TrEMBL record:
This is Acetamidase/Formamidase. It comes from the Bacteria. Gene3D superfamilies: Acetamidase/Formamidase-like domains. It comes from Novosphingobium nitrogenifigens DSM 19370. PANTHER family: FORMAMIDASE C869.04-RELATED (PTHR31891:SF1). InterPro entries: FmdA_AmdA (IPR004304).
Amino acid sequence: MALTCKLGETKDTIRPGAIHHLKATPETVHWGYFSPDIKPALTIRSGDLVFAEAITHHAGDAPDLMFDAGVERIFTEIDPTTRAPGVHIMTGPIFVEGAEPGDMLEVRYLSMVPRNNYGSNLAANWGHLYQEFGEKERVTIYELDPVTQTAHALYAYDFPGKYLVPGTITHCPVCDRSPALEGITIPARPHLGTAGVAPAVDEPVSTIPPGLHGGNIDNWRIGAGATMYYKCQVKGGLFSIGDPHVSQGDGEISGTAIESSLNCLFQIVLRKDFEFPSPLLETPKNWIVHGFGDDLDMAMKNAAKDMLHLLTEHQGLSADDAYSLMSVAADFGVTQVVDGTLGVHVRVDRSIFPHKGTVRDPQ
């Protein structure tokens, strides 16, 4: 299906299709992994809208605030021994009719609304300063103000031992709580930490590291109003969402964001008219390319190489001109340092290009 609009141009020519509702239940989620062998939870056509529930695996940090009947079913009915090799609760997968390996899924995130107004941040054993804090793990519970779109800490408590089991229920009503961050408010940035297509492999792939399929990118800009492009690796794409956040800073240094369940509305459009090697983010102002690696040097190099691809193959610049432009006008940042595979993102302002930042088919 070749589309009439190029990447980044007006999208009015792509009319919304059917609207689907995808609830998160023990039957429609997969906990901790991506796999091409999971039976689709939903089948759609290009252009269809999906209203889907994304559930945080940290709801058990404050079950009195973050549980409801639907969340409790997931936590109690899914065998803890099957929550592997990763940790995130993924809703899906969604099978897109006509999608083949090499095609792109254009996922337009239209809205992200908290399921409840609470979230949890964990200073975890995988956090960047775990040793510096004496190997202590600490939970801070936040409350979201939906009117001001800000969050503030309600209380904090130390977690005994190591937080190792995905979906831990801490029974915080009997824990030793203390005040935290009194008088401080932070901006709410609802977004998905983890989303992507199924990798073309024969075994389950952990949701913890990011990769070319998407996964745990943890970029707070992947929220309402953003569009992500994922390259299909298997028939149907098999797209899933999870790891919802209320807010996060670049780096995610303690190990987590403010983890909180979200209700998400998005549109999926099948694209056969261009390709891009890694998960590509379009915001109203920027193109953002992601790079991953075992260390930040490799992550930054991979981000730079894929931005070079964007500027040469889709913007028509020479390699020399693109390299210069990246140095004087592109901003590199550390996306996260806590997911095993480290992430760097690089953004460039779309308005500096004569075609308003559209991405052209390679010639």
